[in-house]
Amino acid sequence: MIRVVVVDDQELMRVGFRMVLGAQADIDVVGEAGDGAQAIELASQLRPDVVLMDVRMPVLDGVEATKRIVADGTARVLVMTTFDLDEYVYAALQGGASGFLLKDTQPDHLVSALRAVASGDAVVSPSVTRRLLDRFVGTGGPPMRDTAELDVLTDREREVLVLIAKGMSNLEIAEALFLSEATVKTHVGRILAKLELRDRVQAVVLAYETGLARPGLG
């Protein structure tokens, strides 16, 4: 059973998410919060598997709440947003969120994304992730992080990391590089371990911040 806390300052949104998630046999909405401070308290008390987190809220916003929840190790966080809040989402990803969804996401996509995050994966939507990074990581300027961080990677691992940054799945990477999916999974695992990254979301951010991947390329 996947235990979830829903966080949104609009009660109608919380009700809607509860209805969608509560209809699933393997998901249990164990709590709701209307601001980031309440979210932190509930996460600490209930120890859910996933916190579905709104971004702009009173008292404490979702970005700061995400950072604190992830730092405390109480739950994984899936951020909800709209296009006009892109800058907040990027900050949330840097803060440790396991991905993000648009608030108008179809119910089945919400459910599958939540299951993926609960299982330890990260939700990286190719189109929305690239839009975020194109706007907020850089537009051709100097890297935001030292490229020497990537020296531990082999040439093949760098290739794989670039494709991860494009939002490709393991299967898509396998097809692009003419590898088996199992081999790609091994490469991804080694990349995360060598760079001391938690998941694919952090890998995407690092690839752009070091300049390995560039907005508008590929």
TrEMBL record:
Annotated Response regulatory domain residues: 3-118
Residue ranges of domain HTH luxR-type in the record: 146-211
UniProt key word Thylakoid: no
Domain of life of the organism encoding this protein: Bacteria
Keyword Phosphoprotein annotated: yes
Entry-annotated residues carrying 4-aspartylphosphate: 54
One Pfam family named in its UniProt record: GerE
Key words, A-Z: DNA-binding, Phosphoprotein, Transcription, Transcription regulation
Name the UniProt record assigns to this protein: Response regulator
Organism lineage: Bacteria, Bacillati, Actinomycetota, Actinomycetes, Pseudonocardiales
